[in-house]
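Quick illustration, no need to memorize.
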Amino acid sequence: MSKEQKMNAVASELIDEAASLFVSDAKSADTILTKAELMINPETIYSDSLFTRKGDEDVLLLQNVRDAAILRCQISGRKGDFDFVLKAAKTALGAIERLPISGHSDSITVAVLGYQGFAFMKTGRFHDATKSLEKSVEKNKCISTKKKDMASKDAVGSIATYADKRKRRERVSVENALRVCYQQTGAEPPLPDLIKFPRTSHLFDAGGTSTTSDDLVMSCDDAMLRLMSDGSTRVIIEEKIDGANLGISLCPMSAKILVQNRSHYISNGEHAQFSQITEWIELHRLELVDILSGGALSPKGGIQINCQNKLILYGEWVVARHSIPYQRLPGYFIAFDLFDKDASRFYSRERFHNIMRGSGVPVVPIIEIRNFASDAKIPHQSQNEKLHASIQSQLRSLLDTPSQFRSDGGKVEGIVLRIDDETTNCINDKSRHQDTLNQKMAPSPQWLQHRSKIVRPDFIRGCADGHWSTRRVEKQRVDYEFAAEYMKRCYELASAIN
């Protein structure tokens, strides 16, 4: 082993020692790191000439330079010496570029770009900060996507390590710094990735025009059908509303309210049926922000800088008639689901109703809550079809239920069936309805477990006079007298789920 290799080996040990001390004793960590830096380069490792010296392709040397520079970013940042953070970040990125790609390369780059961007922001270089911070966020997004694809279900409930918590804090700091940069530069933040409402499978094909060739239909041994057939699982049955599927969320950078359909974010001028979107948003702005931010409203009505903005409210926009004519709507947006982006799950009906109560935004009507009678459990595959047929016969009559939002006695488009998870302790939601939640002493479901739909056999997608998107908008009617009565009772059904 050469003298230089021995020096690098000792420097590596010193860097590890300094890193382990940083949280509890930053001063000692600084002293030890300085020794390591001198062993790497007696002059300074934070110079532009570092990577022109002989041996610059030595992997251990480059790793030492990278790790020392990253730790120096942290120590200098704690001291408030952001000019030195910029020097150290530049050195770390230079070393990363020259090192062979490894499984940790991207996560390390995310951290260094975050340090660099934060230091740029602190020194007033907001445009430079924006570039570094955006790169950090984008790379982190790619890493998170890969981890979600690879993660096993068993790992979901694992305990977060100190490193996980530190990364989470750093990610929040990067996002907050990026918000400041957008505000300072006046730049428009990029729109977040679209999270489409998932396709809902038909519980069964009701015949006629209820399904199309590309629709999903459950098999008779599907998990939801097996649960429904056990004679004890509670099923919540709701009216399926015929409208334009919309999702409402907050931009994580600007806290601007965003509206999406199934494929993209929409605006007022996109189609005549959306001409009143902005007006409706303004009317319900405070309530929507409160719902979507998890209650993170500032005293002045703005968004707290560190709010999670993690929820998406899905519903049907029913300004224009599609196939079913509605003559007595409680509003032009009927909410049907609330999605938690962090958990990648939908709220249970009780949580959903409790959060929506008092918002002024109506929710879809519950037709009934019931268990399905069963002659037997399902110990054998051969019984599935018989039990499936039994459930079908019990449900078909519900397709003739009069729609809550029609005054002509017309039937529903179809029904949506939901099974929430097994009863567990209710999550302490940060919502306007905290007092209501506190009154509920009994445990309650937190998440949706299964969802399916059944559509009437005579349902026609579009109308005899053409598909809704190609004909003149036929505006539907809000019945304000009915709305006042409906809003009093549509959330109260949550108590029936206890």
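The chain is about 40% helix and 10% strand.
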